[in-house]
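Possible regression after last week's pipeline update?

I re-ran a chain I had predicted before the update to compare outputs. Posting the input and the new output here so someone can diff against the archived version. Not blocking, just want to make sure nothing changed silently.
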Amino acid sequence: MSVAVEGPVLENKLLGPVPKVIAVRIEPIAKRVRAFVGGVAIADSCRVMMMFETARLCVYYFPIEDVRTDLLVATSNVVRSVAKGDATYYSVAVDGKTVENAAWRYLDPPAGCPDLTGFIAFHWKLMDSWFEEDDEVFVHARDPYHRIDVLNSSREVRVVVGGQVVAVTSRARFLFETGLPVRYYIPKEDVRTDLLQPSQTKTACAYKGPTSLYWQATPADGTTCDVAWCYENPPREVATIAGMVAFFNERVDAIYVDGKEMPRTQTPWSL
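New output (post-update):
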């Protein structure tokens, strides 16, 4: 049997060091949630619980009755958590394909931890796809307390990269997202894309979907990097940013709003 200790909770680059006490709670989620491997719904439930844990992403926990346990194979892998106890791992076997250590259960959680004995969770990235109701979702489980507001603004936004003004607009849409800097989405017509180079980078956001295009440029420090991105087909909750261009505050020379330079916030995307 292999026993490992759960990795440390990472410091939140936006909020600073996390508390030493790790809080764990679970709440019911009314959505139907499904996880697929090889076209087979390994888990399909309208009784999903969501785990919230200090400085970690949310995780779906499925009632064991709503999981294809006939496709699970117990492994010798065990990961120890101070807050949750020992996680027993399972591989998923579908049509000759085996996904190793793709799921885990806590069969004997310690005092103070929610009762997880009747639930099982799956590694997001090891599943082929995830759905909330009939909409595919990406990257990780979406936190219901995570909020995004997109607001029209007539304030002038100016972006400088490599000493050149690459965007000026009074038609931006400001995207306010929990725990992140404001992102300024600018109409493509107001962006000097001739000063930018298309990038091969592809990413996805749990709340905004897959990106359509990234652009590179060389800021004043001389390092060529991705500085801007676009979502052509974002979910309807943020549909108003479709086709618009946003710049990393952390990577360009400066972003000015009504002539005032916006601060460079330290984030996971800082270089």
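Follow-up from reviewer: compared with the archived run. The chain has a mean pLDDT of 92. Marking as no regression found.
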